[in-house]
Amino acid sequence: MLNRFRLHQSEEVDLSSFDPEETGGIESKDQIRAEYEDLQERLKELQDKLYAGKSHAVLIIFQGMDCSGKDGVIKKVLANLNPQGFRAESFKKPTADEAAHDFLWRTHKVMPAKGYMAAFNRSYYEDVLITRVHGLISDEEADRRLDHIRHFEALLLDNHVVIIKIFLHISPEFQLGKIRERLESPEKLWKFDMSDLQERRYWEEYRKAYEVALARSAKKRSPWYVVPANKRWFRDYLVLRIIVEELEALPLQYPTPEIDLAGLFDDRNDRRPEA
Amino acid sequence: MLNRFRLHQSEEVDLSSFDPEETGGIESKDQIRAEYEDLQERLKELQDKLYAGKSHAVLIIFQGMDCSGKDGVIKKVLANLNPQGFRAESFKKPTADEAAHDFLWRTHKVMPAKGYMAAFNRSYYEDVLITRVHGLISDEEADRRLDHIRHFEALLLDNHVVIIKIFLHISPEFQLGKIRERLESPEKLWKFDMSDLQERRYWEEYRKAYEVALARSAKKRSPWYVVPANKRWFRDYLVLRIIVEELEALPLQYPTPEIDLAGLFDDRNDRRPEA
């Protein structure tokens, strides 16, 4: 089932061929409730093995238009993980120090070590999206940055970092509804920003910038997933399933101890303190 | 003069064609004393402009066999810099956290920002040298790492990081003399390590690994300099001159203030506090 949502080695990406309303033939949340719980359990076990084995690192990148649900999916799908082995990183407007370095510096610094998982809420992909839409960089510069991204991800892959890239796909109408919700709800008003309405005007430019970025960076070893996100319950289910299936494909194992367990509790080792 | 010591776009490097005793036709330290002092002054001015302008960053990489004088050259040539805009970074055996990341992680983290200079005492090049000599990585892995290094340096260059790569070239006889000095001098004994003598046995393997690394990573925009280092005074002079000439080739300038300076001290602005 995941194949339909996976992009790898794409020549061209046409986001209009993906329906943001789609739910993969599943009619309602009730229908997958039991499977969802099972997936949650499997994810916890996988994280445990990952942490014990220290053979791989896992990087999950979330990209998408404003209101596509990047915060929500991290909160709902990844909240049950052991925080000792998991971190969520959010990348906003670069600080002065970040802007004085190459564009991969701030994300590389917080890359997960082997044994660890990280979720990136936005990422180095912003540096070929918002910058391009607003003409802060030329198309040539964007091209070079996409090359740098490709090489950077090759470096990570060589170091056994699993890269799961998720594009949360919504429609402009859905976005408008979400902005209205923010304005009307006291618990959501804090998330409203004038830029939500301003950036909306660039919807088409963002779509095109995303299509180029996805086409240029979707690789067999690091595909992109286009996740329909108008239906939040399907978004959560699909993201969870992608992560679980990606991790189950890895040769994760608990390491075998290097000590001789057989004699561990014999008289020599298990001596009680002298009275 | 620097051309003789510069490698760029080399197909092959044969270190035996460089004489570690050579002094570029200069007979003694006295002959260049005045020029050396002048170079020191110019370097300070260049750093000042670099710091003010924030248009470029400068990375100086020092590599070389044990006892080639990496510590010494940093101490002697770079000690006069303004420490607020300069940092020396030393890379020893990776920590557990460093080893759990890709091999470029620990150096990328401490990359100088625009306006800053950094000297690396050893660098990511160690990851294709000591590891290769001791069979910790295969030749294929070393090849892939050299590709990653090439791409990484291209990323830095695109971000206006100037990369000055210096290989301090000594002879095995000179090294032995230096090891003996360490053993005999109370102020140098602390630097002696059994590995100095052990690693010496791999001289030929190191030489070959260096030749491959230099040939593969010497580029027009980021050349290597092979600096003869048996004569310490010539090493210092040449390194200083390389750095000054590289920086003088940059369009460094003091930024012009964005405020109107003409009216700065007129009555409106320069009001004394009311009595």
TrEMBL record, chains A, B:
Ranges where the Polyphosphate kinase-2-related domain occurs: 28-249
Matches recorded under InterPro entries: P-loop_NTPase (IPR027417), Polyphosphate_phosphotransfera (IPR016898), PPK2-rel_1 (IPR022300), PPK2-related (IPR022488)
Coiled-coil regions, chain positions: 29-56
BP GO annotations: polyphosphate metabolic process
Keywords assigned: Coiled coil, Kinase, Transferase
Record-linked Pfam families: PPK2
SUPFAM superfamilies the record matches: P-loop containing nucleoside triphosphate hydrolases
A GO MF term: polyphosphate kinase activity
Protein name: Polyphosphate kinase-2-related domain-containing protein
Organism, scientific name: Paenibacillus mucilaginosus 3016
Lineage, opening ranks: Bacteria, Bacillati, Bacillota, Bacilli, Bacillales
